[in-house]
Design a protein that fits this description.
The structure holds two protein chains of two kinds.
Chain A lengths: L2 E5 L2 E3 L5 E8 L8 E6 L5 E7 L8 E3 L7 E6 L4 E6 L8 E7 L10 E2 L3 E5 L2
Parallel strand pairs in A: 2-11
Antiparallel strand pairs in A: 1-3, 3-8, 4-5, 4-9, 5-6, 7-8, 9-10, 9-11
Chain B lengths: L3 E4 L2 E4 L5 E7 L12 E6 L6 E5 L3 E2 L7 E6 L2 E6 L8 E7 L7 E2 L3 E5 L1
Classes of the chains: A mainly beta, B mainly beta.
């Protein structure tokens, strides 16, 4: 079964750091372009960033609000995607989803995890 | 960044009746490869988003054929031919051509009357 499972969310103070993980199973993770998408409480969806497969360069792209603070990485040997979040702000409070386009095209996010909640508050 | 504008932001539909959601982009989503990178998602209450439509009009596997997507350039529409109770949730369009970033519409909340 194809699955994405996020973990690592929690409560953190402003200025703090947190690392999220996304464990993939049921597909060839190393070939996948992976994205993080977040959703603030009661709000819409916001793309956070993406990492390409190593065969496609392994490069990363970020949304402007997180660029320079967040880092996406992957460990293909562990089938795991990471989101390192530094200098957290209250506005980073959200459910964070990992997602990928597996069955259709890379940009069509057709597989989503269940999400992990990050709360930034003093 | 590309701005995606959805209308309406909410709609209430009687079961069995049709529903339509509009999505307009601030720039054309037509790529030089001939494809148009416009997607539709549904987020049911308490769930993760799920892909409905990709590249304007292609239904994702398992999506009922009462859902259809159409449009071109900057104007797109998601139609539900006969709304069912299980269709409640928030619908989002998203563009995947002018990257980064991917950008979503604000969402349209569908309720059942």
């Amino acid at each position: 079964e194809v699955q994405l499972v996020e973990s690592g969310g929690g409560l953190v103070k402003p200025g703090g750091s947190l690392r999220l993980s996304c464990a993939a199973s049921g597909f060839t993770f190393s070939n996948a372009w992976m994205s993080w998408v977040r959703q603030a409480p009661g709000k819409g969806l916001e793309w956070v960033g993406r990492i390409k497969s190593k065969t496609d360069g392994g490069t990363t792209d970020y949304a402007a609000p997180v660029k320079g603070r967040f880092t996406i990485s992957r460990d293909d040997s562990k089938n795991t995607l990471y989101l390192q979040m530094n200098s957290l702000k209250t506005e980073d409070t959200a459910v964070y989803y990992c997602t990928t386009g597996l069955f259709t095209v890379p940009d069509a996010f057709d597989i989503w995890g269940q999400g992990t909640m990050v709360t930034v508050s003093s | 960044d590309i701005v995606m504008t959805q209308t309406p932001l909410s709609l209430s539909v009687t079961p069995g009746q049709p529903a339509s959601i509009s999505c307009k982009s601030s720039q054309s989503l037509l790529h030089s490869d001939g494809k148009t990178y416009l997607y539709w998602y549904l987020q049911k209450p308490g769930q993760s988003p799920q892909l409905l439509i990709y590249e304007v009009s292609s239904r994702f596997s398992g999506v009922p054929d009462r859902f259809s997507g159409s449009g071109s350039g900057t104007d797109f529409t998601l139609k539900i031919s006969r709304v069912e109770a299980e269709d409640v949730g928030v619908y989002y369009c998203m563009q995947g051509i002018h990257l980064p970033p991917y950008t979503f519409g604000q969402g349209t909340k569908l309720e059942i009357k």
